[in-house]
Amino acid sequence: MRAMILAAGLGTRMGPLSSLRAKPALPVLGRPVIAWLLELLAHHGVNEAAINLHHLPRSIENAVDRFAPSGLSVTYSREVTPLGTGGGIASQADFLAQSEPALVLAGDMVLDCDLKTLVAQHRESGADCTLVLQAKCRQNQHFGTLGIDAQGSLRRIADRFDLGGEVRSGVFVGLRILSPSLFRALPDRAPGTAFEDLSDWWAPLLAAGKAKIRCQLLNPEQLQWQPVGTPAEYLTANLSPPHVTFLAEAERAAPGTLIQGEERDLVLGAGARLGQGSRLRRCVVWEKETVPPNFHGQGGVFADGNFYFGDTDPGDGVGQPGNPGKESNDG
Hints:
47% of the residues are buried. Strands 1, 4, 5, 6, 8, 9, 10, 11, 12 and 13 form a 10-stranded mixed beta sheet that branches. This protein has a 6-stranded mixed beta sheet with strand order 15-16-18-20-21-22, with helices on one face. The protein has 9 helices and 22 strands. By secondary structure, the chain is of the alpha/beta class. The protein has helices spanning 17-20, 33-43, 57-67, 84-91, 93-96, 115-125, 180-183, 197-207, 231-239; strands at residues 2-6, 27-28, 31-32, 48-53, 73-78, 102-106, 109-112, 129-134, 145-148, 154-157, 161-162, 168-178, 213-218, 224-227, 258-260, 266-268, 273-274, 279-285, 290-291, 296-303, 306-309, 326-327.
């Protein structure tokens, strides 16, 4: 089985952290985000994966070189300009269409679910595409959610597309299961054109009655999903990481990574050092970083010699001596 990880985004919501490394290369417990996804794929029998690259591509390549599971072959699709989710997938259509089915995942999350069961259900359904949803919806029913009918067929895409007949909804977690039939219905666009999969590819097919796109709602017992798209989400992923099934509890943290503090709320990457008198709460320190003596901070990330605020609570991100005073742009 083959898969693709979408990793070409600019990561603007991550603020200055994404100017240091691409989001899929950011460390969660010392293990890059993309490494968690590769472990998931390998655990469920995927032996070939493609990754699209654009922003800070070498940071992702380094992460794959260090952490890719043995037996999983990885190839890259390099985008001169970002192609969007649809354009990125379309660029790998020949690769993905040879897998029945293929998996496509967003590269900015930690995810765990039973891929083998989901693939089996997709095959039994005869659908062209299955989208995996988190059953728990946000307060705004239409924000970031997909609506489905009683048979599980996709009927609504956020507030951009609505065929009516919705009876349930869920949050799309960025996991797609695609049959080869879907690649025979790609939008008629010039190669290298940017477009989105949901709005520009699948919505027109649904409106014309030319595709069967189903959604699989998963409850919290069936799905572990932690987005890593903003500084706050990044801190949550590190300080309250999902209990995934594809890594033993003792293996979740990368070798050399330490979890310290009275509330186990300080993640120290391999080779990181704390200066005498420094105090950190709810913080992540990247590998090989040195925190200055007497530095006090909370709710942030120490990386590239600087402290970046991660939370938006008024009491968070307080730096004492040694704080360069950089703040993240969470937008």
